[in-house]
Amino acid sequence: MRLSTIPFGFNVLLICALIIASSFTNADEKASEVCSESLSKASSLNAYQLWKGATSCYSNNRKLHSAFLLTAGQVRAMTDMQVLEGSSDEESKKLSELYGQLYYYYGGSGDIEIFRDRAQLSRLTELLKRWSVKFDKEYNPGWAYKQGVSEDKYKQMFTCQKASRVNKLLKFSKLINNDAYYKAHLELEQLRQKNSGATTAGTEDGDKMIELLSKTSKIASKIVMPDEYVKECEFLYRYEPDPNATYTQVHDGYNGPTESGAFIFDSKEKILESWISKALTKEELGRLLKRINFDKEVLVSLSFGRRTNVTGSTYISDVDYNSNQENFSIAGMIGVNMRDCKEPDRESFPFVLAIAPRPEKFRSLPNKYSQNFPDGCKPVRSGSASTE
């Protein structure tokens, strides 16, 4: 039957159906094209571009390739954020935006069934191990960054981040291949999809989620996991203070506050009223106060809370001031004994102090970040907590 002999209403429906089918076909073809192009150019794409490719591959039912591009984007993002410092405070804001995308949207592992299939997992890890990146003047991470980063330094961080991410995937596979964990995980994901926003405690779904989280945590604690030590990241573990830092570390102690935290002290009076006056001896406090010119400088503190295996290698590793936010960011590193060390644990409350340039405006409570690093096997420091 020719189209012209079909009743008018049916003509319209058929034409609409053909248009819709055509649009779906075009969308599928476009997704397939973006997926394939992303795979072929994966060495030169930034994190956002890799994640776009991951989304296209997933919609095209190429889930293994989607998982590869998703993970590749995570590795690129972490490498860029670690190495490529924004050329201005305005550009540095874009690093925070990338971190937000990584944390909230692209921090997963991909289709869960890949990690319960030994062959697919092997294929995924092989794709990642064979993948390398280009870093040259043409590369754009999504922000203008300070020049002078060598290709060797970038590749060193990239190798570390890739090995670390593969290690995390293997850990996830170990968990998800436990049938009890897998079942609880699926239930948890169903509840999360059902409750797209925050789940209220006390509701049926809220209580069920708490129960499932507790269950998966208990199961995970009984599974022997791969060692967290990643040899490709060894250079990160060997911390050395920056000789060109704008701040000066002046004291480290092990009788600080019970909780981790950071603070900026801009006067002698504030220091004397704080826990610092109790943690330092009278002589140490006197020498410290003489070193600070409060018209031009501030005292920065970073405390690590209760610890049991610290070696005494405790540092403030960065003091950064953001003029747009009018706030400091304080980072610290603390050495701990390696896992196989037989030294007995001892309780301590580590903290570190540094003198930094004083900006015109700042908040007394800065952003903070701290990280452990393996420090061999040494006698453990001990100390009692100081309170306000």
Explain this structure to me?
With 388 residues, the protein is an alpha+beta fold. The chain is built from twelve helices and seven strands. It has helices at residues 8-40, 47-59, 63-83, 89-104, 118-130, 151-176, 179-194, 204-221, 234-237, 268-272, 276-279, 282-291, and strands at residues 248-253, 260-265, 297-304, 310-322, 327-336, 351-357, 367-374. The chain has a four-stranded antiparallel beta sheet. A three-stranded mixed beta sheet has the order 4-5-7, with no helix packed on it. The chain is globular, with a radius of gyration of 27 Å. Mean pLDDT is 88; it is low at 1-15.
Q: Strand order, biggest sheet? A: 1-6-3-2
Mean pLDDT: 88
Q: What is the rounded distance between the termini?
A: 91 Å
Percent in strands: 5-15%
Biggest pleated sheet: 4 strands, antiparallel
Structural class: alpha+beta
Number of distinct helices: 12
Record the SSE blueprint.
Layout: H1 8-40, H2 47-59, H3 63-83, H4 89-104, H5 118-130, H6 151-176, H7 179-194, H8 204-221, H9 234-237, E1 248-253, E2 260-265, H10 268-272, H11 276-279, H12 282-291, E3 297-304, E4 310-322, E5 327-336, E6 351-357, E7 367-374
Parallel strand pairs: 5-7
Antiparallel strand pairs: 1-6, 2-3, 3-6, 4-5
Q: Nutshell version of this structure?
A:
By secondary structure, the chain is an alpha+beta fold. It contains twelve helices and seven strands.
Task: Summarize this structure as a short list of keywords or feature phrases.
alpha+beta; three-stranded mixed beta sheet; 7 strands; disordered N terminus; four-stranded antiparallel beta sheet; 12 helices; 388 residues
